[in-house]
Structures are given as C-alpha cells and as structure tokens.
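User: For a benchmark we're assembling, each entry needs the component sequences followed by a predicted structure for the full assembly. Here are entry 17's components. Please fill in the structure.
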Amino acid sequence: MRHKTSFLDKLFVASNYIFFILMGVITIFPFLNLIAKSMSSEAAVISGQVNLLPVDLQFGTYSYVISDKLFQSAFMNSVIVTLVGTLLSLMMTSLAAYPLSKPRLRGRKIFVLMFVFTMLFSGGLIPTYLLIRELGLINELPVLFLPGMISVFNMLVIKSYFETIPDALEESAKIDGASNFRTFLQVVLPLSLPVLATIALFYAVGFWNDFFSAMIYINSPDLKPLQLYLKELLASANNVFLNMEMIDIDRAMNVSPQAIQAASIIVATIPILLVYPFLQKYFVKGVMLGSVKG
Amino acid sequence: MAPSYFKKLRLDVRKEWDLYLMLVPGILFLLLFKYTPMYGIVIAFKDFNIFDGLAASPWVGWENFEKLFQSRDFARVFRNTLIISVYKIIFLFPLPIILAILMNEIKNMIFKRGIQTVVYLPHFLSWVIVSGLFLDLLSTNGGLINKIIVGLGGEPIAFFMNTSVFRTVLISSAGWKEVGWGMIIYLAAIAGIDPQLYEAAKIDGAGRFRQIWHITVPSLVPIIMLMFILRLGSILEAGTEQILVMYNSIVYSVADVIGTYVYRIGLGQQDYSFSTAVGLFDSVIGFILIITGNYLSRKFLQRGIW
Amino acid sequence: MKKTITLLMLIAVMIVSACSGSGNGGKTNNNKESAAPTNNTAATNAPQPTEDVLAGDKPQLRQLQPFDRFDPNSYITAKFLEEKTGYKTTYEMLPEELPNEKLNLLMANQEKYDIMRLSKEQFFTLAEAGALEPLNDLIDKYGANLKAGIKETTWAAASVDEKIYAIPQGGTGIYAGTTLVVRQDWMEELSLEVPTNKDELYEVLKTIKAKKNVIPLTGQLSVMPEIAAMFGITSNSWIEMDGKLVHQAEHPRMKEYLAFMNKLYSEGLIDSEWPINTGSVAIERFTSGQAAMMSLAWWSAPAVVNALNRNFPDANYLVIPGLKDEQGNSPIGVNTGISYFMAIPKWSTNKEHAMNYMNVKLEEELFKELVIGQEGVHHKVEDGKYFPILPKFDEELNNASFFLTGVDESVYSTYWQARVRKDPILFNYFEELQRLAEGRFVIDPMSNAPPIASVSENSQKLSKFSNDTYLQFIAGTASLDTFDSYLAQWKADGGEAMTKDANEWFSTTK
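Assistant: Structure for entry 17:
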C-alpha cells in the first residue's frame, strides 16, 4: 500500500535538511577557526586576522606540539586510561544495571537509592584523597580510572534501557534452562547494543576529558593525562602572577603562543572525536528485529 | 514480621542468587569509593583545619549555613540561580529531544552520520574557549552579530554588559555547546525502537507526524523521564563554570549565582567548611527534588527510577 | 527491608571507622610526634662536625615545584645539577589550578618532600600551620653561601618571631613593567605631541577619537598604573602616607581617579568593552589598528611589535614617558618582594642534605653556570654586560630559573639581564622602559612583610571586591555617589582589620 507524499511532507523533509545544515555550520565554525589559527603565524593570530582560513600558512606549530615529550607521554597516558577505563566501566556498569532492572529483586528500591544518593552527596575532596592515599593509589595511573569506574548516571541509563526489553525474550531463555547471568550475556547484552555503544562513548569521553582527578592525585609530570597538560598549557598565558603584586617574569617571557595553543587543542580533541563515528554503526534500528517470535 | 521476611529473602536468594552476585561488584565499588569518604559531610558542621584533622577541628553546628543564608547577597544569588536554572531547563531540556526526533527523519545515512559528528563538537571545547568565541562574536567592536544588527539599521548591543540580555547570552551559549551532545542519548533510544511498529502504523495509514507522535515519542518517555528527574537534582547548579568565565561585575545583579558568589567571597581563604556546607545545601535541595520528581512520575506515569 | 538497611549501614560504619581511625587519628598524632624527634636530632647533631651527617652516599632528594609546562626531570639543567652537586633530585609540580588546595592536601598527609618552592601565600599558610622546619641552625651549619648571598632584609621576609622558615628568593632587581604606547604614525598625522599629564592626555584622546574614529585607549585593568599614578596611587595594595600604611582602596584620591576614568569612558575615549576585556583583547585591538593606545609590557613587546608590523608595515609605536601629577611627579610602584620561598617540611628525612644541596648551588661558578651557562658557549660578556648566544641559550637555559632555590643577590640581577637581551625588540623596549623609569620608583612598604593573618586572609577577596566595584564606577553602572557606602563595606569586610594589623607591623620597622 503506497501512501502519497504530500507537499507538506516534501517541505518538511527539505526544511529538515536545511535546518541541520545550518546547525552543522554554526557548530563547526569554531573548529575551523581553531584549525586556521593553528596553521597561521602568531602575528596574524594575536591581531585577530584569522577567521576561517589560515593566514601566513605554517605547520611548525604541529611539529612543535607533537615533538614535546611531555605531550607524547600525556597522550599515551590518556589513551591507556580511556581504553582500559571504558572497557572496565562498561562491564561493571552493565553488570550492576541488570539486577537493578528487575522489579522482582528484593531490596531493589534501597539499592537504587543507594546509588542515586551518591550522585548528590559526597564526602568531599579531603576524605576521598585520604582514601586514595590509603589505597596506595596516589601518583599511580589506575587512580585515573578506578574511582570513576561506575557512573550512576550511566548505570541508570542502561537500567532504563534494560527495562524496555520485553520479558518474553528473557523468559524463553529461562525456559531453555539459562541462568540469570547467561541470559544477561547471551540475550540482553546483544539486544542492548545502542545503549552500550552510547554509554561506551560517554565513558570514553568522560575519561578522555577528565583533568580533575589527575590534578589532585598525580604529582609526576610524566603521568599527566592529555587534558590536564592542555589545560595548563592554555592557562599559562594568564597565570604569570605570583600574587597580586608580582609577576614571575621568567614565566611571563615563556608564555605559549596562541597558535601553538590552538594546535594543542586540535591534537588533543581529534582522537576522541573519532570514537563516535566508530560507534555509530551500533546505532542501527532494527536490532530487535526478528527476536520476537509470534 | 522478621522471620517471614528472611524466609522470603532466602527463598529468592536461593533461586536467583546469581542475580545478587551480579550486584555485588557494583555495591562493593559504591561502598568503597563513595560511602567510605561520606563522613566528610560533617566538615560542614565543623570549623575545619586541614592540618589539625577532622577529629581535632571544633564543632560549630549550623554556623556555616548561617554564614551562607545571612550573607549580604544570598537572596539575590539564590534567585539568580533558580531563574537561570529554570530558564535552562525550559529552553534547553526539550531541544535535544526535538533534534533527535528530527534527525531520525533524515534518511540519508552519510548526511546523518556526518551532521551528528559535527553538531556535538562544541561539547569538547572548554568554557574558556567558548567564552572567548562568544565575546568575539558579540563584541561591539567588530563582532559579527552587531555588524548584522547595525546593517539592519539597529543600535549595537553590548551583550556582555547588558543586564537585560546577558542571561540570554548564557542560555544560548550553553545551548549551542551542549545540544548536539545531548542528542546522542535520545538517538540511541530511538534506535532501539522496533521498526515493525512503524511498518504496522504505515499499513494502518498513519502519516509521518502521527508515527512520530504515537510511536517515537512514547518510546522516548522512559529516558526523558529519567533525564528530567536527574536534571532536577542539579537545579542549584546553574552553570558555575560557564558563568565564572563569562560574567563580569557589570552583570552581577542578574548572573551572580551561588557557585560564583561563594567562589568570590572565599578567595584566598581555603574555607573548606563553608564550601562543604554550600555543597551540602545544594545536595539536599537536589535530593528532595529527585525524590519528589520520582514520586510524581510513579503516580502519573506509572514509572520511575525506582 | 529494615534489616537490609541495618545490615548495610553496619558494614558502612565498620568500613568508615576502620579508615578514619587510621587516617585522621594517626595523622593528628603524627603532626605532634614529628615535632619532638626533629628538635632532638638537631640538638644531638649540634656539637658534632658537619662531615658526619653529610658523609656517605648522597640521598635522592624530592622537590616540589609550582606549575610549569615542561618536564623538569628530563631537562638539561636537572642533569647539570646532578652532575655538579652529586645530588639526584626528582621534581614534582603542583597543578596550575587549585595549587593551594593540593598543597594543603599533600602537607596534611605529610608527603615526603625535601624542598618545596612556595609562593608567598603558600608559605604563609604552611608557616602558620607549623608544617615547616625552622632553618636557622641548618643555615648556620650548612648554608654559608646562602647567608652571604642573601640580604638581611630579604631574610626578614621569610622569618616569623626570629625563626627563618624558608630561603627567600628575590633579587631579579627592581624593574618597570609597562608603559603606555601610542601609534606613532597617527600622532604624526594629527600633529600631536606626546601627552605629559592628565589634561594633555584627555586632549590627545579626544582628538584621536574625533579624527580617526578608532578606540583611543584600550585596556582592561580597573586600576591602570599609568593613569592612577597621576593621582598618587602607586600600588595595588599598600602605600605609605605620612608615615602610615594606607591601602589602595582608602587612598584619598581614589574617587578622583575613578571619576576621571568614568569621564573618559562616557565620552568614548577608552574602550567601551573595558570591563570585559582581557590582556590579549587589548593586544588584538592595538595590533589590528582598532585602537591607538595601550599599556605595553616589555615581555609582550616582541609579539605585539611583530603583529603590528605585519598588518601595518609603516606603523610604529611611540613610548609615552610617565604621565605626571600636579607636582610633576610620575611615580612607579614596585614590589621588591620575594618571588619564591624555599622551605623544608618538618617531616623530611634529608634536611641537612637538602640545605647542603641548596647551598652548593650558590657556589660562585656553579651558580653562574646554572643561570647563564658557560662563557663562549651560552653567553658572552661585553662591557660587563651579559649577552646570550642564540639559539643555545634558549635551548638549554630557557627554563633554568625554574631550578633556582635561592640566588646570590649581588650578581643575579646582572646575570638575569642576559635573558632580556635574547630578543632585540624585547631588549630595546626593556632598556627604554628602565631608562625612563629612573628615579621614579616607589617601593611598596609591605614588600618584605612577614605573614600577617588578617592581611593574607582578606587581601584577595577584598581586592576582587574593589576591582569589581571600580569597574562598575568606571562603566557608569554604579554612581560614584555610592563610593562611600562601598568603602564602608570594604572596611567592614576586613579592610579595617587588615589596615590596623599592617600598621602595627609597620610601626615596628621604624
């Protein structure tokens, strides 16, 4: 049975495309601006001459940034933390979300409340620091992904998704003799690819972007992750003041040029941007297709 | 009461012990990393000196809270916090949902994937950079927006120094930065909808908009409800990080929020007790709202977080 | 249901008490315990010869530094120091953001550092908290070079009640930092003379605005030193008037200054976005031809001049010598204070070696090579002045100052000038600035003050408050009629307490 595409419908489709093109334009232009700055001369950048295209084209900034040993170690640190952290977190979070998605679980309300409570209430920096210290994690790389292993928000999202999976699917597995754990692994998880991909993305971005943990728990310069390195690179321009009256003139003379700052941002952001396109293939409709029989 | 309860517990546990086992790692993690440090909340009720330690610091009861509520500008910053937060919820909460629904109507896969990757880019820029961008865009000395306004015959607007428009600047820039990213979770939810529902609807003669209204939207209700309730929990966090880099004393009257105010009056003092007290205040309010939100959601939508 | 809650809470409480028991309790005890043994060690060591303590293998020292954006552990200066002194030092850095918070955490947990390079604020906090080792004995025994190289007045700034708690590093010398510069080509075009006082400045700005339709003066500071000096306001904090200390906020001519700035603002003679500008915006406006005048710091000179010439090859800047007040004076406020304090925490196990290490670094030849390298390789000497040999100087010595833990004040400022000479634009502008600044320096009387509680607690917050309010006065969003109520608030929020305590200390220095 064919339905007629009305004029209104065609108009809608066209406007939709135009709308998203506009959205794309206004969200991409600052990146184009940054890329342009990173490939322009410092003189052009600080006098505001750079808009969307490089001025006085040069690539020295990129080789400078990448050849900085501190940048390289920071980059590696971030890659390791993000990969390990995302994998670990995804496993732990979905594992915890499954039982909590079952209404028949005794004490479910309490358990969920226990999780939600920690979203709002926290002991604060000082007791947490003490704990990390007691665990021997100060200045050790795992401190960058262990304490953040389960994000309650992410867990709730996965739980919410699990709750939409029809009971019938799980029942049929149970009838065949599968335990809860096997049902989880072999039935539920494969059906949850969109949400798992999403949460993997959330965790990956979360770990990649985190600088605060490193700021507090890491002391050695070579264990710093990329975002902390970057933040400090950018801030050094504003931070030459020792106190209100005095300037550290040696640092003032070494302020990193804006073109290099721009290049650093680009290099630190590109890797994580590649994750989403990679995961997009899991956002496919029809994952449930064929799984409901009769 | 007790014996029968335990009997029930044991029964379920015996039958479905693996369900509880699956929960153990998560609960252990929670207890270790979140609940062990929880005693730090008492810092809010003490005059804390980090070098003396928690035990040796004197108890001061509600003093830190009084300091907050009685501070000169508390009424103003509290009001600003609520106003900005509510505006953000009203204008910015629905946007990613609408965008996800619209995006779902795009059929060209290449275009779809491309645009999705582009619109979430601003999320990755720090507020320092985004603030600089908007300052430039909205400048009265050569900024693009004012050029357009003047070109159309108007007077230039000093966006960052105008108390009537500054909140709009805050909300718009926050929207620009986060809307693309916020879309992702709703797109994932839509991806989980059974296509057979759409097929069946088409067969019944439903057009595009009816399909959206009767299939897409209802399927999104669980995730929308979750996101909304959680959003309520951070109602007193009106965007401190953003506002700190974007505001200035000229617009304090409309943009100074609890977070920025506390930051300023605490400069150079390292008063952990006070900042912990403020945080506790935020948390309590947020928690009450989440509980209320969940209760109402269960009552009217028959579903909640727990 | 209830039983589950009870069970869980029991577990939680057990874990909590286990951790807090060992954590906090132990810590509080440690703080007091470490005080006793240290004193004993010093007492028992006193009669014995130096060699005994320092004999044997040199331990590895752990040094905590403020933030910088290079890896000190792999930098050439670190290797140089290890070679020459025999001490291997590992460096760790505080973060750029929240460094004080992190430092407090590290100190409260007695992290084993041997040397810490602290800012004034950090030094004050830790000295007050009793975390620092008094260094008098150590300096007497192992710090001969330090004693000789650092002046009495400098030592005084790091002392509380006769006890020295850190090695103070000052000594780069007194320099002028900024001055106003204006577009030379425009001044010539409009046949304008360089202004020398308030009224002439006003006229020049007016003419520029009328004829060139650009922003006459761009900037961002609420108290712009070049203009404030015309009203006698020479410091961001303390000024001596009639033998007493007056804080900038209470300066009798502050209102006048603000009125003048407000006048300039309302007539469009200064940048309309003054309250929201940053330093880099001012540079952008000037170098892109949108503004005629700005305050240029010598460390920014090369970048600005290059940018200006890129966009306008025929343009140049003209330096405006100090604008004078009614008496013809043009004071420049400077702070001769300490940039860094080198402290040793009480619980360090290598105190003697730490002091020895810092002392050895001040040996004449070593110190010179540390700061400016080898003659003929990194630097050359002309007329008693030091000039860098590029690019070697930049490659190997750019970050050398990071590694300093105290300087020989008699030679450091001469050596340091080699850094300024590494770029001709930088150098020319710098020399010009200093030449114009001769005889005009007014030293901040609190430069070398020791820690004063009410001052360190209140200065930052009050300073922010004042600057915020000044910007409102300048932009006209707050009327100057409310100045008195602002000042009353300033006093009530700690300004009065600060002034009283500062003056109490000040009277003891007379």
